[in-house]
Structures are given as C-alpha cells and as structure tokens.
Amino acid sequence: MRAVRVMGVDPGLTRCGLSVVEGGQGRTVTALDVDVVRTPAGEPLHRRLLTISDAVDHWLDTHRPDVLAIERVFANSNANTAMGTAQAGGVIALAAARRDIDVHFHTPSEVKAAVTGNGRADKAQVTAMVTRILALQQKPTPADAADALALAICHCWRAPMIARMAAAEALAAEARKKYQARLKAARA
C-alpha cells in the first residue's frame, strides 16, 4: 500500500490552518508541513478570501496532496463566524476540485474522537494528542495549526473505512439494479 498524502484544513477567515501529512501502514502518520494563513478583520471579505485562495493554491501546487480533509462547518451562535468559515471552506474545496483532488469533510466531533478518543475533547487535549501522534518536538501553535493536523490525521485513519463503505454501497447498488431487472423481466 502506498502512502497517502492528506492536506488538512481548519477553515477560517481570521486564521486558516493548513497542514500536510503522509499516512503510511496502519496508523503511522508523518507531519510534512503546517502553517496558519491570517487575514486582517478590517479587510474586505473578497480580499480575505483571495489571500486564503492564493495560499491554498500555493500549498496544493507545492505539496500535491492526494486528498483534502476540511472541517465541516457547524452552526454556532455567531452566524457571521459560521458564514465566513463556510466561505473559506468553499474557496478551498473549489481549489481542490479544479485540480481533481478529492475533498472530504469531517465534523469537529469526528476529528476529536479520532485523535483523542473523546468527541468532546478540548483544544488542549487535541493539541497534546496531535503532538504525541506525530512525535513533534513542540506543540503546534496556534490551535488552528493543531486542528489542521488533527483533521489530516483523522482522515488518514478513517480513509480505509470510508473506502470500504463506498465499495459496499456500490456493490449494493449494483445488486439492487440486477434484482430490479430480474423483477421486471419476470413481470414481462
């Protein structure tokens, strides 16, 4: 089995976490790069999205990931924050689509559960586990960097199950098609 290169993205307008890891045999994951793209809150939205887009384009062209893992936006009490996060995630997903790179979205609780074993873990727990899993010399900061790495780790570990589920669904769809064809033929 060849190693898979995953780009993890914690989308946000003010801080957008970007990471690239390589997943190998079993649960082996190696960090290749991590950074946070920052945009000033006072800047117009379209300029902030352009800054994020330019950074993501550079990362995609430099690191050439096999897949992107992006945090799925969830509705929170601040609609403006959720909207900005969704817009940043959309710009990033579009950049991947233009390069024919698969994109998978993971919820925060999925990521926390995969990395810490607890879907309600706090940021400190996620950062500590990311540091341990990747055998980093120091904790990634800010939290957006650790979250981007956690997303990539989560996808590395969940990808085999996602692939098996897709294959099972395809087999079930094919079996359903054949069964319906036999029923149609029997009625005729």
From TrEMBL:
Pfam families: RuvC (PF02075). It is found in: Cytoplasm. Keywords: Cytoplasm, DNA damage, DNA recombination, DNA repair, DNA-binding, Endonuclease, Hydrolase, Magnesium, Metal-binding, Nuclease. Mg(2+) 2 binds at residue 71. One of its GO terms (molecular function) is magnesium ion binding. Its EC number is 3.1.21.10. GO terms for biological process: DNA recombination; DNA repair. One of its GO terms (cellular component) is Holliday junction resolvase complex. CDD domains: RuvC (cd16962). It catalyses: Endonucleolytic cleavage at a junction such as a reciprocal single-stranded crossover between two homologous DNA duplexes (Holliday junction). The keyword Cell inner membrane does not apply. Binds 2 Mg(2+) ion per subunit. Mg(2+) 1 binds at residues 10, 144. The active site is at 10, 71, 144. Its cofactor is Mg(2+). InterPro entries: RNaseH-like_sf, RNaseH_sf, X-over_junc_endoDNase_Mg_BS, X-over_junc_endoDNase_RuvC. It is an enzyme of class 3 (hydrolase). The RuvA-RuvB-RuvC complex processes Holliday junction (HJ) DNA during genetic recombination and DNA repair. Endonuclease that resolves HJ intermediates. Cleaves cruciform DNA by making single-stranded nicks across the HJ at symmetrical positions within the homologous arms, yielding a 5'-phosphate and a 3'-hydroxyl group; requires a central core of homology in the junction. The consensus cleavage sequence is 5'-(A/T)TT(C/G)-3'. Cleavage occurs on the 3'-side of the TT dinucleotide at the point of strand exchange. Belongs to the RuvC family. Homodimer which binds Holliday junction (HJ) DNA. The HJ becomes 2-fold symmetrical on binding to RuvC with unstacked arms; it has a different conformation from HJ DNA in complex with RuvA. In the full resolvosome a probable DNA-RuvA(4)-RuvB(12)-RuvC(2) complex forms which resolves the HJ. This is Crossover junction endodeoxyribonuclease RuvC. It comes from Mycolicibacillus trivialis.
